[in-house]
Amino acid sequence: MNDIMSDRFKGQVAIVTGGAEGIGRAVARRLAQEGGKVVIFDRNIELAEKTQVEFARENLRILAIKVDVSQPEMVIAGVQRVMNAAKRLDVMVNCAGLPGPTNTKITDYSAADFDRVVHVNLRGSFLMAKYCIPPMLENNYGRILLFASIAGKEGNPGMIGYSASKAGVIGIVKALGKEFAETGVIVNGVAPAVIQTPLLDQVKPEQLKYMVEKIPMKRVGTVDEVAALATWVVSRECSFTTGFTFDLSGGRATY
Ligand SMILES: NC(=O)c1ccc[n+]([C@@H]2O[C@H](COP(=O)([O-])OP(=O)(O)OC[C@H]3O[C@@H](n4cnc5c(N)ncnc54)[C@H](O)[C@@H]3O)[C@@H](O)[C@H]2O)c1
Question: Relative to the CA of 162, which ligand 1 atom is closest?
């Protein structure tokens, strides 16, 4: 997408977690293309720095910082670094996440795997919101977007940890939307079905077949389609919706 002419995020500062690749990378790029100053938080700093260099070739200035979203000290230090440098925070999009075991019945799903998936997907969402909301409140303005999944709305068999963690993310979105509804801070979620990203390499073929067959459009989504919705949700234009998880499922979830 090189034909973006808008400057919806001019003067704004955004943190995008999981921005080294996949959905986060596409969201970070579009925010920067539309004038935002973007900081990527990713635990894979080598890949995040590679992304930073690739964006620089497109004249997009993005800063990569090593942050594991499940670790409070790293989240606190990362947000503090952004605030020290930029003195404001307008947008936070939490894309960091992992699928964990797939095509695996609960009887074969270890408690350690369950904890690992919940730790990143759910605890990470909690920590990122917890530490990004205070600087947003200082300006009475903020837009938070947490990535849930169709698995959290419908439950994907064979992915118990992932489904549970993403249902939890939807719960966080609902609670925080109400908790801050009278401030300028808006909290929403998005629940995609299958999107073409490196994450799909971690999904067993039988599981992927099940998930794609469930999509009425009979295709996977693209990261640009995700970025188009996500950037609208974190723009000023989205002003009367909070606590809601937007659909992005090619017709699978019509609610
Ligand atoms: N791709 C899909 O089909 C799909 C569908 C529904 C929901 N989602 C959700 O969208 C989000 C993005 O998915 P994606 O497909 O782009 O994934 P991806 O695997 O392509 O990219 C995920 C990024 O998150 C980073 N990351 C992982 N754990 C982290 C941690 N603890 N701290 C910081 N960074 C971490 C990775 O290094 C990577 O850069 C995830 O939350 C995922 O669950 C994806």
Answer: 43
Print pLDDT tens along the chain (255 aa).
Answer: 456 778 999 999 999 999 999 999 999 999 999 999 999 999 999 999 999 999 999 999 899 999 999 999 999 999 999 999 999 999 999 999 999 999 999 999 999 999 999 999 999 999 999 999 999 999 999 999 999 999 999 999 999 999 999 999 999 999 999 999 999 999 999 999 999 999 999 999 999 999 999 999 999 999 999 999 999 999 999 999 999 999 999 999 988
What are the Cα distances from residue 174, in Å, to 5, 34, 45, 131, 151?
33, 28, 31, 18, 17
Residue 18 Cα: closest atom of ligand 1: 24
Instruction: Determine, yes or no, domain membership for 63.
Output: yes
Q: How far is the CA of 42 from the centre of ligand 1 (A)?
A: 10
Burial class (CB in 10 A: 0-12, 13-18, 19+), 162: buried
> Of 128, 144, 123, nearest to 190 (Cα)?
144
Strands (E), 43-122: 62-66, 91-94
Query: Which of 131, 162, 210, 255 is flagged as catalytic?
Result: 162
Three-class SS state of 139: coil
Any domain includes 251:
no
What total of structural domains would you count in the chain? Answer: 1
Reply yes or no on whether 162 is catalytic: yes
CA 98 – ligand 1 centroid, Å:
5
In a domain, 231, yes or no: yes
> 69 CA to middle of ligand 1, Å?
11
Instruction: Give the mutation target among 23, 45, 71 for probing the ligand 1 site: most ligand atoms within 8 A of CB.
Output: 23
| Model confidence pTM above 0.85 | yes
The CATH number for 57's domain is 3.40.50.720
